[in-house]
Amino acid sequence: MSIPLAARTAGLRSSAIRDLLAVTQRPEVISLAGGLPAPDAFPLDHLRAAVDEVLRTAPLTALQYSTTEGDPDLRTWIAEQATAARGRPVDPSQVLVTHGSQQALDLVAKAVVDRGTPVGIDEPGYVGAIQALSVFEPDLCPLVVDGDGLVVEFLAERLAAGLRPRLVYTVVNFQNPTGATLSLERRRQLAELAETYGFLVVEDDPYGALRFAGDHLPSIASWSDHVVSFGTVSKLVVPGFRVGWLIAPLWLRDLLVRLKQAADLHTSSFGQAVLAAVLRAPGFLDHHLRLLVEVYGTRAAALARALDEHLASRLTFELPDGGMFLWGRLEGGVSARRLFDAAAARNVAFVPGDAFYVAEADASTLRLSYATATPERLGEAARRLADALDDVV
């Protein structure tokens, strides 16, 4: 006898990117699909030293249950970074450490989203956010993204016409999937709209430190308290610890703490202690960020050159200023899904762009990640993509 399932699970779809793993894990495949950090840039020596330090100096604390809010040293470090990004003080009490920024979004959605609640989201947008929000059965309202990030003018028009979202979610720097960065003027405008219309902005920023061109831009929270900011160590150090955070106004933070208590009590004490030791090690962060920026910047440029060489006018794209992704569009209306099948046969993988849409998708778009492959392998991947495109046109 089967047990009835919750009605809210009926429309829940699997992550299109996770579904590609069977293809990308074959050793002969060059994967441009997953948004995985470069494993050759993992700071293994620093992590080993931090593990030894934690087990030597504070083993009982690090291995015991802890507070829901998170490790005090780690929260203080996060608050210091946020203070610099906002240009105004952020108190550690505003910080809640989470199991990655994905849990942060789940907690915020639990706090403010009811069934049918209008929620604005990037279009095209992050698959994980679409998946996390969909559990709560909102009215997902796609908001156009262009080369300067979320088109705030489009949102303003929707608001003037009567849209009343309770939450607007956007990836502000090197957006997943397009690589776009929300411009300075649009950040100010979005903050003003949030204040005027009384909605919450969720600014997700997993990639902001990975900038290899241009200037760092201030947080949307520099201009408004109607903002919850997400961050993660997954792209900054390593993803395996599953440590992220949110920074919320105090009126909301207490509720989020209670929701996290109900979910998992707290994030790994040991993982937080190790990461706090790594991030606070003298000179570590500056040196490590320089390495990451060099690795990703070199690989982004290598993929762009290879695409220009092998695909020329058949694939259009813009080189991002940072992050891990390049967004392309196939000319002539070629379906990225058809190309994916042909590319898999030639042992190269990417993510078809239709996975990133809530509404009607642009079937000719695709996301390419340059993060994990060497420049030489990226060149070979572009050649294989060109051969695959020949197979379908």
CATH class of the largest domain: Alpha Beta
SSE series: HEHHHEHEHEEHEHEEEHHHEEHEEEH
Main sheet record: 8 strands, mixed
Shape summary? globular
Percent range of helical residues: 40-55%
Q: What structural category arises from helix and sheet content?
A: alpha/beta
Largest sheet strand order = 2-9-8-7-6-3-4-5
Topology, number of strands: 14
End-to-end separation in angstroms reads 50 Å
Average of the residue pLDDT scores:
95
CATH topology of the largest domain, by name, is Aspartate Aminotransferase, domain 2
- Percentage of residues in DSSP E strands: 15-25%
**In the CATH hierarchy, what is the superfamily of the largest domain?**
Type I PLP-dependent aspartate aminotransferase-like (Major domain)
The helix tally amounts to: 13
Cα-atom radius of gyration: 21 Å
CATH architecture field of the largest domain = 3-Layer(aba) Sandwich
Return the domain count.
2
Given as residue ranges, the uncertain stretches (5+ residues, pLDDT < 50) are none
